[in-house]
Design goal:
By secondary structure, the protein is an alpha+beta fold. It folds into 2 domains: 201 residues, FAD/NAD(P)-binding domain, CATH 3.50.50; 144 residues, D-Amino Acid Oxidase, subunit A, domain 2 (D-Amino Acid Oxidase, Chain A, domain 2). 29% of the residues lie in helices and 29% in strands. Strands 1, 2, 9, 10, 11, 12, 20 and 21 form an 8-stranded mixed beta sheet that branches. It has an 8-stranded mixed beta sheet with strand order 6-7-5-15-16-17-14-18, sandwiched between helices. Strand 10 and strand 11 form a beta hairpin. Helix 2 packs across helix 5. The protein is elongated and about 65 Å long. The N terminus is likely disordered. Keywords: FAD, Flavoprotein, Oxidoreductase. Its cofactor is FAD. This is FAD dependent oxidoreductase domain-containing protein. It comes from Amycolatopsis dongchuanensis.
């Protein structure tokens, strides 16, 4: 290892977003001397509410969520920041995707159950469900801003140094165990570098596939009664129903926040997605009897990277990008994967 002095470290992480913070936490917890360089200021980053699900139709995603759950609880305990509220998840509709959800939940050893419509009406009066209803208990609402604070806090408590307002301008491998990282404040040296700088990663690591940031908008509403139970939910609408209602896709909800299942627009301000917003407001009125239609408001845009996630090691440089937005709920286990890539060159066995 390099001598820990001045600007030297075992690992430098470029970017203190969720991915970089998760990697820094796991590396520092394993005993590495870690420095994180973040271009932004403290407090900047993710916002909004995301759905956390262990039954989401893909085996790899289910396993990653299942392994992330105890790590989120560990981060909450270490930092005192509440991140995840388990509510269970309701999926309903006329799609075969419901059977896929049930099968993949069984396959990871955490089965859910089919709920009779009359039970759904009694238990979740704020939702109007179609006749086929699948419920899974290991799901809930994840506060994106709190999640980022918890990951950064856990990294700092594990001994990681986070330096804000220091954008990285160059990552230059020198030897198999030496990388120079340049910023406006000087030059750092480390055995390994983790580049987790979002769309800026392509400027620091040549040859990365393009990352296309898309922006999704959700609508929020106030419940008609404060005592209503709001699970996270997903409504699978078949093509005739989509055409009849004018919806862009199926609909998902996390508490009192609802959006379509696909990203909305490439523009940050999303002014072009007014029809989508109107459709979401119409969905709330038609399918959520527990919501006050007059209270529906448009949320701030949330970034979703539309590309395949990159988790790769190139010599002494590890790259992690494309995991913003919906990848946030499984970032603790992604941090373990990245820590293993840094230390052994092979993904952690928990890799999704």
């Amino acid at each position: 290892m390099l001598a820990v002095a001045g600007r030297d470290a075992d690992v430098i992480v470029v970017g203190a977003g969720g991915t970089g913070s998760a990697a820094a936490w796991q590396l520092a917890a394993g005993g590495a001397r870690v420095v994180v360089l973040e271009a932004g200021r403290p407090g900047c980053g993710a916002s909004g509410t995301l759905a956390f699900r262990v039954a989401d139709g893909e085996l790899a995603g289910n396993r990653a969520a299942l392994r992330s759950l105890p790590l989120w609880r560990e981060a909450e305990q270490e930092t005192g920041v509440p991140v995840l509220t388990l509510t269970g998840a309701v999926a309903h509709g006329r799609s075969a995707e419901l059977d896929v959800l049930a099968w993949t939940a069984d396959a990871v050893g955490k089965p859910g159950r089919w709920v009779p419509p009359e039970e759904a009406v009694e238990r979740w009066p704020g939702l109007r469900c179609e006749d086929r209803i699948f419920f899974h208990p290991l799901a809930g609402r994840l506060d994106a801003s709190a999640a980022l604070r918890a990951l950064r806090g856990a990294a700092a408590q594990s001994g990681c140094i986070i330096r804000y307002g220091e954008p990285v301008t160059e990552v230059r491998p020198r030897q198999s165990d030496l990388v120079e990282v340049r910023t406006g404040q000087g030059c750092y040296r480390a055995r390994r570098v983790v580049v987790a700088a979002g769309v800026r990663s392509a400027a620091l690591v040549p040859g990365l596939p393009p990352l296309r940031p898309m922006w999704t908008r959700s609508v929020r509403f106030a419940p008609v009664r404060p005592d209503l139970e709001w699970p996270v939910f997903q409504h699978y609408l078949d093509p005739p129903a989509l055409a009849a209602h004018g919806y862009a896709s199926g609909v998902r909800g996390a508490g009192t926040e609802v959006d379509f299942a696909e990203p909305a627009a490439a523009e940050v301000d999303c002014r072009a997605d007014a029809p989508r917003t109107r459709a979401l407001a119409r969905y709330v009125e038609e399918w959520l009897p527990g919501a006050d239609p007059a209270s529906v408001t448009l949320s701030a845009p949330r970034c979703e990277f539309v590309s395949d996630a990159v988790l790769d090691r190139r010599g002494p440089v590890v790259v992690a990008c494309g995991l913003a937005g919906r990848g946030l709920p499984v970032l603790p286990v992604v941090g373990r994967v990245l820590a293993a890539l840094v230390t052994t060159g092979e993904p952690h066995p928990a890799a999704p």
